[in-house]
Amino acid sequence: MPGGLSDKFAAKFSLDLAFLLFSTYLGGSGEDTTYSLAFDSNGNLLLAGGTGSSANFPVVNAFQSNYGGGDADAFVAKMSFAEVLKLSRSGQTLELSWPASAAGFVLESATTLVKGGDWQDSNLTPTDINGQKVNTVGTTNAAGFFRLRKQ
User: Where are the domains of the chain?
Assistant: First the structure.
């Protein structure tokens, strides 16, 4: 859940800025600050900063997986734009898809993003179609926001 005085948000747009291709959020309940960012040769976003989120700053393969105390702990994060949740609309249905190779992800939905949103497992079972995990939902009862979360 976001909180504190600052969090991170990254977005990737098409060259003509007409389409949002990717967006994500990074942060926990405390103050999280980015001091530097760069892109590597593969187009991944690299961030370095500090976090005061004592319990819920997201970590994967971390050297130190728990908050160490004090004002802040340092972090280095790598965001890949390769495994992307795609959304397309056809009439009254939305199709949500992502690469089948993106193992260990769960589709979550929320009706609002206020105070971090009310993210919950969508309880949708994806179908494997041409190397993609695919879910179809109706637009009349669809949540307003979707995300993939690594389990």
Answer: 8-79, 86-150
Whether the model clears a pTM of 0.85, i.e. scores above it, the answer is: no
Distance CA 8, CA 96 (A): 24
Q: Tell me how far apart the alpha carbons of residues 87 and 18 are, in angstroms, rounded to a whole number.
A: 15
Q: What is the pLDDT along the chain (151 residues), one digit of tens a residue?
A: 456 667 777 777 778 888 777 777 787 778 888 899 898 998 888 999 888 877 777 777 778 877 777 778 888 888 877 657 888 888 888 888 988 887 788 888 887 765 666 788 888 888 999 999 998 888 776 667 888 887 7
| CA-based radius of gyration for the chain | 17
